[in-house]
Give the backbone structure.
Amino acid sequence: MSMSRSEDWVRLRHMLDAAREAVCFAAGRPRTDLDRDRQLLLALFSDLSLIGEAANHVSDPGRAKLPDIAWGPMIGMRNRLVHEYFDIDTERVWDTVRDDLPTLIDQLETFLRAEGHLD
């Protein structure tokens, strides 16, 4: 089963790399660090924005091969981070990184490995 567009697997890999990085940045850190550490906050914003941007460029047939991924919410979060950065719910950012990204990582790793695009 190959992706309909050759760029899709590259976008999925970008999503995976950014998700892994965000989870790594947050690992072992308390939620309050988002309020005290601007670098952490900006790093998580950047990774979440990258995930949403890459998701936005995965083709419809590519998305259909991964129906359990929340494509709309990921793209929506990216749009909010980029266009409404002044009114971001840091609790939601933290919950996304801690609760949602590990699942996304598992989904992407499983798919990319099965497609031969991940060791």
User: Anything to note?
Assistant: The chain is about 75% helix and 0% strand. Residues 6-114 form one domain. The chain has one domain: 6-114.
